[in-house]
Request: fold
Amino acid sequence: MERRAAVLGSPIAHSLSPALHLGAYAALGLSGWRYDAIECDEAGLPGLMSGLGPEWAGLSLTMPLKRAVLPLLDTVADLAVEVGGVNTVLFRDGARHGENTDVHGIVQALAESGVRAPKSAAILGGGATAAAALAALRELRVSEAALVVRDRSRARETLEVAERLGTSLAVHTFGELETVLDAELVISTLPPGAADAHAEALASVPAVFDVVYAPWPTPLARAVDKAGGTVVSGFSMLLHQAVRQVELYTGLGRGAVPVEPVRAAGQAEILRRAARTG
Reply:
C-alpha cells in the first residue's frame, strides 16, 4: 500500500516541504511514499482530516492550522501543549496524535551554527513561531527572555506560552528596541520584509536567527554578517523540523534520516525557484 503525507495551509503553493520530504524519501529509498502540498484553510480542516484513508501516515501544518487542529486530535505531545501549536499530525492505530517539530528545528539550526548556550535572548514577533522559539530557548537553558512586538496586545498568547514553559518574559514594543540590543541572541520570527527597517540597529548583536529563508540573505542577515556576527537562516529550521517529521511519519526513529541529502534537495528547489523568477 502506498503511504502518504502532505503539508496543509492556505496559501500553500510556496511551501518548501514537498522538496524536503521527497528528498528524504529518496535518500532512504522509500519508493512507496508520496508527499503533496494541499490547499486547506481552517474551515476545511475537519472535513479534510475525516476523509483521509488508511494510507495516510501524517500531515504537516502551517499557520493558522497549527492551533486550529488541536480540538481535532486524540492525543497531543506535552511539548505541543506547552507551545500551544501542532505542526505535525501522526495517524496511528486509528488515532490522531499531535507533535511539534518546530522547536527541534530551531534548536538544531542554532546548534549547527555554533549557538548552543546564549546567556540572553530576545524574540521579535509574537506568533506561533515565537512560541516555538521560547520553547527552544528553554532547551538551551535560557530562563529569561525579551519579546518585541508592534503592539503589547499581540503578546498575550506568547505570554501564556511563557507561563506554561516557566520562562520569564519581558515585553517591549519596537519603539523600545534599544532595550534588547545587548542580547547575545535575537530570533526574528517576523515575516519577509518586516525586520528590514531594524537591520542596522540589530547589526551589533552577536547572533541572529532570521526565520525567513527566501529571498536570502535578508537585509538583517547581511547587516549582522557584515558586522562579524553569526547568522542563522530559517531554511535550517525548516530542514531540521522536516527531517524530524519524516522520522515520525516513517517510525524510523531519531537519527535515521540523513540530513545532507535533504538539505541539498531543499537548496536545489530554492535555486530552481530563483531561476524561474529571476
Q: What stands out?
A: The longest helix spans residues 259-277.
